[in-house]
Amino acid sequence: MNGLINYVSCGVLWLCLVVKAPDLLRHRRDPYLGAICAVLGLAGLCFLLGAPPTVGAVNRLSGVPNLAAPLTYAAITGYCAASQVLIVRWRGGPRVDRTVRRWTLAYAAVVLGIGGLFALGDAPVERRTDLDTYYATTPFIAQMIVLYLVAHLTAVTVTTFSALRWARRVRGGLRAGLTLLGAGALCGAGYSTAKLVAVGARWSGRDWSALGTTVSPAAAGLGALLTVVGVLVPLVAPRVTEWRRAGRTYARLGPLERVLDDLLTRRALRLPRPRFASPATRLMWRQTSIHNALGHLDAYLDRDLYDRTRAGVLAATDDPERAEAAAWAAVITEAVRREADPASAVAATADGGSSPGAFPGSPVGPPLGPAPGPDALGRIADVLAVAAPAPALAAVPSGTTTAGTA
């Protein structure tokens, strides 16, 4: 066996660890983050030490036949403890630290027992893939094998029930992560169960070593994959949700940016479009462009038009937010028209516009106050998406509604 699957699995796990390492360095005292990194690191170490080429290299370099076995068993035991500690940290509660200490001490004792039993036993023949069944009847070595398998089965069983029971009480990414973690632990139970059955068969004189050399590694690989994905899902889910929300908001603001597009282009108010950017970055770019345009239009905003439009839509819909959005849509559209064609704005004013004597670029009535916030911009874009307010709104009498806003 060339151990390719082991090395690929180890590489993926340690790549995830490298991604999380900067967070761990910035937050060294975060026990939750430490537990995540321990799970990733120890899971990768299990695959690395369990690969047949690594087993041969460790045995050869150390000069001790089968020394790789207790090292691998110790890594598996540590991984089990880290997984259970992660569940405890995830769940929280008043006795978290006490529970973590108990699990840590218990599995530290198991690791010491593995080392002591291996030292007392005699395993002179190197076995890279079937040591469990080959030495199942050897004094002390057999006890070492049973000790680590029972410890592993206990940990993954507790992890399975804890994760799946808690998953029923939560929602979202945490629920998905716990479900995957529980499924991974269940696959891990298949690993130790298959090996225990193979060892038991050896005790009764049967040779079921295939369970330990084929079924167990497959169960361990699938379990590690599900466990790692389960650990990462709650970390990634909030960011994915944020990106999805940013993408929807970005698309929602499209009608408003299109109304301002000519102004943004003529006045060079738009920043360079970001390439290969996240949805959140693209949303910030669009919002910045819109705010730049609104800042330029500040002197063209018609307070009288705003008040009349808001009052008319409010009377028709009894919805203050919708009325405010319709009023902003009206004054923005009119301001864009006035800014683009000052001569026609002067003519419209002379023919009975909202502010006799006004000149292009002068405020019309009292200032409108601060620019709309992110939520208000979305509502304004919704109004413009239905139907852009017509320029004739400058002469809409009080009490009437704007086209497309009622």
Description:
By secondary structure, the protein is mainly alpha-helical. The chain has helices at residues 4-26, 31-50, 52-62, 68-91, 96-120, 131-134, 141-167, 172-203, 209-252, 254-266, 279-296, 303-317, 320-340, 342-350, 374-386. Helix 1 (4-26) runs antiparallel to helix 2 (31-50) and helix 10 runs parallel beside helix 13 (320-340). The longest helix has 44 residues, at 209-252. The chain is elongated, with a radius of gyration of 34 Å. The termini are far apart.
Please specify the SSE layout and strand pairing:
Blueprint: H1 4-26, H2 31-50, H3 52-62, H4 68-91, H5 96-120, H6 131-134, H7 141-167, H8 172-203, H9 209-252, H10 254-266, H11 279-296, H12 303-317, H13 320-340, H14 342-350, H15 374-386
Helix pairs in contact: 1-2, 1-9, 2-4, 2-9, 4-5, 4-7, 5-7, 7-8, 8-9, 9-11, 10-11, 10-13, 10-15, 12-13, 13-14, 13-15
Quick description:
The chain has 406 residues and is an all-alpha fold.
SSE topology string: HHHHHHHHHHHHHHH
Largest sheet: none
Average residue-wise pLDDT = 83
Helix proportion range: over 70%
The N- to C-terminal Cα distance equals 73 Å
Task: Write down how many β-strands occur, each being a DSSP E stretch of 2 or more residues.
Answer: 0
